[in-house]
Design goal:
heterodimer, A: alpha/beta, Rossmann fold, 2 domains, seven-stranded parallel sheet, 12% strand, B: alpha/beta, five-stranded parallel sheet, two-stranded antiparallel ribbon, 20% strand, binds guanosine-5'-diphosphate, binds magnesium ion
């Protein structure tokens, strides 16, 4: 798509055209050297004011259900809310079945809410790249709260959580063993810990355990924020006010301490790093595809193994630079 | 390797993204779930929105997810009404380029009417999965060609 066409889409999206925003996000899922300017344009138009809230935790903990509750609470306060639901491609098949949306469908028709699922990535870092680019788009288009859901396993998901302003780790009673099984690093990143499904009897035990985890996480972290632990029940709608209060408090802390600006800068640095990686991989792939042909041609020169292989390296290097 | 791809304008091939929706009040979604899983296994990206969706919800989800195809599973008598409303709403949102297919127990006698309304394909019970996949792939690449 040419620049004029894209700017037209952005203009339409600004005016509330959701079809246009949906199309923009699709371009951002497939960034390459030829359309990297799209995310650049969006980032230069985003305020960095949106609060990016990462929500992670084992499958079934109730993340999507909680997000649906959060959407409602944020909407009541007049915020515009975007959700990026990350669901990695099933390792068992090349496709994906995306069900996070199912729990949030009540909000689908609310003009102040936009929900997008992300799944396929061609390379490690691809999911993060797509999510980070989408964050810039939502911010540029005036969304106040950008919620990112991940199941918190895998490098890509840790990366994207790292890029959030506020990290919420969700667990549930009886998940103790699974919780232990999660990488300790993932667990200790929380700014807020949520014990969801508190309507269940074993919840207080889990609460105690999470308080311990929060304290442990606290030792390792920089800054003055003390992680909070909140009990919720997404089905009953209990504890949601406490959770929203904790999220607000964390934003206040971020803004007051200057950490907010630092996190935005960190997020953009990560975006650039991943975009560069994508461009290098794309270019390498192209060079590699042309490599066979070069081998045939260089071999004809009969300069000997050493000279011929050096010549191939030189050719590849030239193509890498020309191709980018 | 899966074949469920459309050619994207860039370097990578984009998987076909399909919304599987169940519109109306009837409470069984077995059929919809079976097809959702089968399509996933065939390499599709399937967005599943669950039971008892309204036409507005389905269109909103399709637009936000920018899907290539909308698949509606239907087991009630109101399919003609639903189809008409769905296509109308898609036009209203500037999303009439997204093809809509229908599955489930649709009386054969209604198919011409549904075609005239704009439904692209029908998958009656017993349609072989291979045929479903091929037809969906054709629809997705036709749509992609339109966009160029
Ligand atoms: N009892 C109870 N069940 C819940 C609660 N929150 C979510 N669930 C259920 O847990 C299951 C998984 O929820 P979901 O939101 O999809 O979890 P996710 O995988 O973490 O996104 C669903 O069946 C929900 O209805 C809760 O607070 N209490
Ligand atoms: Mg979920």
């Amino acid at each position: 798509m040419d620049v004029g066409g894209f700017l037209g889409l952005v203009e339409r999206a600004r005016g509330g055209d959701r079809r246009a925003l949906g199309r923009i996000l699709t371009f951002l899922e497939d960034l390459s050297v030829s359309n990297a300017w799209m995310v650049e344009y969006l980032a230069s138009n985003s305020s960095g004011k949106a609060q990016v809230i990462g929500i992670t935790g084992i499958p079934g903990a109730g993340k999507s259900s909680l997000i649906s509750r959060l959407i409602k609470a944020f909407r009541d306060k007049g915020y515009r809310v975007a959700v990026i639901a990350i669901d990695p491609t099933s390792p068992l098949s090349s496709g994906a079945l995306l069900g996070d949306r199912l729990r949030m469908q009540d909000h689908a028709t609310d003009p102040g809410v936009f929900i997008r699922s992300v799944t396929t990535a061609g390379f490690e870092g691809g999911l993060s790249l797509a999510a980070l680019a989408m964050i810039e788009a939502f911010d540029a288009l005036g969304y106040d709260k950008i919620i990112v859901e991940t199941v918190g396993v895998g490098q890509d998901e840790t990366t994207v959580m790292d890029a959030a302003d506020t990290i919420i780790v969700v667990t549930m009673p009886g998940a103790g063993d699974d919780v232990q099984a999660l990488k300790a690093g993932v667990l200790e990143i929380g700014d807020i810990y949520v014990v969801n499904k508190s309507d269940k009897p074993e919840a207080s035990k889990t609460y105690e355990y999470m308080s311990f985890v929060a304290e442990k996480g606290d030792i390792g972290r920089e800054g003055a924020w003390r992680p909070l632990v909140v009990k919720t029940s997404a089905v009953l709608g209990m504890g949601i006010r406490d959770l929203v209060e904790a999220v607000d408090k964390h934003l206040e802390y971020l803004v007051g301490s200057g950490d907010k600006a630092a996190r935005t800068a960190k997020r953009r640095k990560l975006l650039i790093k991943l975009l560069a990686k994508k461009i290098v991989l794309d270019t390498l792939k192209k060079v590699y595809e042309e490599h066979d042909q070069s081998v045939g041609e260089v071999a004809k020169t009969l300069k000997g193994f050493y000279e011929e292989s050096l010549e191939l390296v030189r050719l590849a290097g030239r193509k890498l630079i020309e191709g980018s | 390797m899966s074949t469920a791809h459309t050619q994207s304008p860039h370097t990578t091939k984009r998987k076909i993204k399909i919304l599987v929706a169940k519109i109306g009040l009837d409470g069984h979604d077995r059929g919809a779930k079976v097809i959702a899983r089968a399509l996933r296994d065939a390499g599709f990206e399937v967005i599943y929105t669950g039971l008892r969706q309204t036409v507005d919800q389905v269109v909103a989800a399709a637009v936000q997810e920018d899907v290539d195809i909308i698949g509606v599973s239907h087991h009630e008598g109101s399919h003609i009404y639903v189809a008409r409303k769905l296509l109308e709403k898609l036009r209203e949102q500037g999303a009439e380029d997204i093809p809509v297919v229908m599955g489930g127990s649709i009386p054969v006698i209604d198919i011409d009417t549904l075609k005239a309304i704009g439904i692209k394909e029908f998958f009656l019970p017993g349609t072989p999965l291979k045929e479903v996949i091929e037809k969906l792939e054709t629809l997705a690449s036709q749509k992609a060609a339109l966009k160029q």
